[in-house]
Structure prediction request, 456 residues.
Amino acid sequence: MNQIDKTTHWQNIDQQHHMHPFTDTADLNARGTRIITKAQGVYIEDSHGKRYIDGMAGLWCVNVGYGRKELADVASRQMMELPYYNNFFQCANAPAIELSQVLADITPDGLNHVFYANSGSEANDTVVRMVRQYWKLKGQPDRSHIISRHNAYHGSTIAGASLGGMAGMHSQGGPMLPNVAHIMQPYWFGEGGDHTPDEFGLIAARALEDKILELGADKVGAFIGEPIQGAGGVIIPPATYWPEIQRICDKYDILLVVDEVICGFGRTGNWFGSDTFDIKPDLMPMAKGMSSGYLPISAVMVGDRVADVLINQCGEFTHGFTYSGHPVCAAVALENIRIIRDEKLVERVRDDIGPYLRKKLASLADHPLVGAVESVGLIAGMPLVSDKKTRKGFEKPGTVGTICRDFCVEHGVIMRACGDRMVMSPPLVISHSEIDEIVEKATAAFDATARKIGKM
Ligand SMILES: *Cc1c(COP(=O)(O)O)cnc(C)c1O
Prediction:
């Protein structure tokens, strides 16, 4: 079969048998699947041989870039030595053990224990069970309520979807988990009105205090938030936000859960978003960049306060997964972290390539469609607007974003549209000239979008 025939062959099977995640399948079938066949560095290639520069690092996860032989070698060696064994029944495996020490080392002070899972969603399910069990053991079982934010993303299992603040997810497969409440997000550009960002950051944080008082402080077990909301559109909170959230959690003795699934492992120019925003998490779920997506693995870092209770007062904690601490995934995560360390990728994001991305993206600030250019390290968001001055969006939210996303693909750059926010989170190994290429192609796509909707 030649390439065209092969693509059609795969597309036909895909259409007949494969249900894609977060996809309108009827719409997909009408358009046909784009089949990605290989990848190297920061480029992916489809079955027609067309190359794209990957401005998203897959799904915010391929931090060390594609085609890293070190990771393949480690996986292969570990598979031959011990492809699987569980961590139940008094057993453990060396990669999982060694990884837990490394994680305790690189995560913020006070996080010294790790519980393994296989996805960000499972990590957040684990968080819910830990929070509620912790308070039960503390003699306060009523503290079962968890407060999150609108437009948060915490995964797609029933707990993940419930913790998340995505209306479209709450409307399917419910009822959602009980005792989860949502407060406003710290999205100044979209919701800040005439307030300064700093004023608005305090307002958004104080919504937490209002909700705690509404529910009763003795009913609330935890607050959960992403340092920067990823899937929500790369919402970077004003500088006043996290210190105020921390103050409120401390005041009411509420556990602070920081979802580092995207921000972790160098994305923001520090090892963790908690370092960048100076947050002190009690629980810290993480995934994605933990293995650069080469194999599925996630974890919850458990702070000393919670670990002490779960270890010394619980007896058996009746929770875990067949693949918790999978030896091959753990070995790959270890090697991935070694690469990030040895190649000084965190420092590189902070001092070199992060500032360079920011500088290059500034050229888009004058674009007629772009309302703002916001970035921290190698994560960036750009709201598309109908009126730059008033920050006003479009009649039908999401339509222009989708048009722009499709033009990006056509121009050979992968960016994502979250509603009408165009977002970017490239591999941490991306070079200066590759950033230039992304910005050049994105600009062409933004121009094409503006022309299509009569704004240029
Ligand atoms: C992706 C993501 C998750 C869910 O991770 P999965 O591996 O897809 O289950 C949870 N939280 C955040 C912040 C994420 O970005």
In short: The radius of gyration is 22 Å. The domain at 34-64+344-452 is CATH 3.90.1150.10 (Aspartate Aminotransferase, domain 1). Residues 119-121, 124, 153-155, 226, 230-231, 259, 261-262, 287 surround pyridoxal-5'-phosphate (CB under 6 Å).
